[in-house]
Amino acid sequence: MNFEHQHAAHCESGVISNLLRHHGVPMTESLAFGLASALSFAYLPFIKLSGLPLISYRMPPRAIIKGLLAPLGARFKFETFGSPEAGQKRLDELLGQGQLVGLQTSVYWLPYFPPDMRFHFNAHNLLVYGKDGDDYLVSDPVFEQPMRCASADLAKARFAKGVLAPKGLMYYPQVIDKAPLAADAVLKAIRKNIRTMLAPVPIVGVRGMRMLANKMQGLPAGDAHTVAYIGHLVRMQEEIGTGGAGFRFIYAAFLQEAAQITGRAALGGFADRLTAIGDDWRVFALKAARMVKGRDSVDPPALARLVRKQADQEESFFRDLKRVVA
Amino acid sequence: MDLEQVPQEGNATLDGQRKLMYARDAQGRVVTTPSRGWEAEEICTTHAVDALVEQAAAAKARVLAGSASPLEYWMYTRRMDVALLSQTSGFWQWRVRRHLQPQHFARLSDADLARYAEALGLSVDTLRKLP
């Protein structure tokens, strides 16, 4: 298969933009991310990863792919399987037909991941573009080069259990409408994202950030659990996927593209503002990391203040943006 | 973040890989560039990995002292906990907890051992003892 791998910051937006480009749709990672209204914040205390709450800076897995269907006039086929054998058979079948296939996998069972990055995180995405002997040819967008993965390892990664278990999920396009992207679709996607960020739901968007801040406020400073919690926050922000700051930078890139497509130059200024907000998320991460390392004393209320400041900044950002895309 | 601020700090946990980042160039356009990693990430990842390594080491000491089964050591070595091992192996959590005790582990049938071995990606022989 003649397939061109391209490095991306985030797995799902990277997979889908590589997949769409393969099918002749001009698509960047940031445009895919923005069109799917994927920027978010969610604090989900009832979903635990190694005993710590799930905190997400973007929409849940599969949201980017599903969110792109309407603006692109596309239809995808999603398949899950009861057994690894059935999953592998179907994958081989599709590869035999020359199909480029997207998969959801665990990170832990992929041997090509750096050992320190191998955690039981199940919502990773990658593309398979061929098979050579027992090795699958893998385009994992968070790596610079294509990878290889033995079939037994890939089967384990696809059928890992636990939170967000992939159940062998695979996806590939059935129909893609190759009409040029309408300015309306871009504005609609931005409006949808604004609604998410300002949603009247306590665990989502800016309200979710404030709820997290309140939870952090009460953490005891001298506790090992508190340090684990703070480290976990930064890891959710900076490492899994691409992070709170990273997603904001991607969305800033999208806003610049949106300014071009829609002819609304004001969106460019919002890109700069969001970049500045992303920089502040990085300040938060660095401060938290210093506490984890023991360079600064552990001070949960100070971190809570920073998160509240981010909530305030993002709230006014999205309120102002709303006026521009109305 | 501006292009020249993109961290290239050689984050050891990336094992030589580079990740892609978005940053502003001199004209204010957001562009992409590879990054060798950032200290803040390295600190937090290392902290999480160290906690898992400590759990495995503590389990190993308990196995040697005869108060835990090798299953506990392998569970932590595979970066799992009781909840995840339960979901992966299909055993209820209370049974997994029992099997962490040496006397119950010793009585496991070959079929049950094979389920744990499969869940942990090990051979049954490896699972029976410490490395």
Strand order of the largest sheet of chain B: 1-2
| Pair of chains with the largest interface and how many residues each contributes | A-B, 54 and 41 residues
Overall radius of gyration of chain B: 21 Å
How many distinct beta strands of chain A? 8
**DSSP helical segment count of chain B:** 7
Instruction: Profile the largest sheet of chain A.
Output: 6 strands, antiparallel
Quickly count the domains of chain A. 2
How does the SSE layout of this entry go?
The complex is a heterodimer of chains A (326) and B (131).
Chain A: H1 11-22, H2 29-35, E1 39-49, E2 52-58, H3 63-72, E3 74-79, H4 84-96, E4 101-105, E5 124-132, E6 135-139, E7 147-150, H5 151-158, E8 170-176, H6 183-197, H7 205-217, H8 224-238, H9 243-262, H10 266-293, H11 300-325
Antiparallel strand pairs in A: 1-2, 3-8, 4-5, 4-8, 5-6, 6-7
Helix pairs in contact in A: 1-2, 2-9, 4-5, 6-11, 7-11, 8-9, 8-10, 9-10, 10-11
Chain B: E1 19-24, E2 30-35, H1 39-64, H2 70-77, H3 82-89, H4 93-99, H5 102-106, H6 110-120, H7 124-128
Antiparallel strand pairs in B: 1-2
Helix pairs in contact in B: 1-2, 3-4
Short description:
The complex is a heterodimer of chains A (326) and B (131). Chain A has 326 residues and is α+β, with helices and mostly antiparallel strands.
Written account of the structure:
Chain A has 326 residues and is an alpha+beta fold. Chain A is built from 11 helices and 8 strands. In chain A, a hairpin with a 2-residue loop joins strand 1 and strand 2. The longest helix of chain A has 28 residues, at 266-293. Chain B has 131 residues and is mainly alpha-helical. Chain B has 2 domains: 3-37, no CATH class; 51-128, Orthogonal Bundle (434 Repressor (Amino-terminal Domain)), CATH 1.10.260. Chain B is built from 7 helices and 2 strands. In chain B, strands 1-2 form a two-stranded antiparallel ribbon. The longest helix of chain B has 26 residues, at 39-64. Chains A and B meet through helix 8, helix 9 and helix 10 of A and strand 1, strand 2, helix 1 and helix 3 of B.
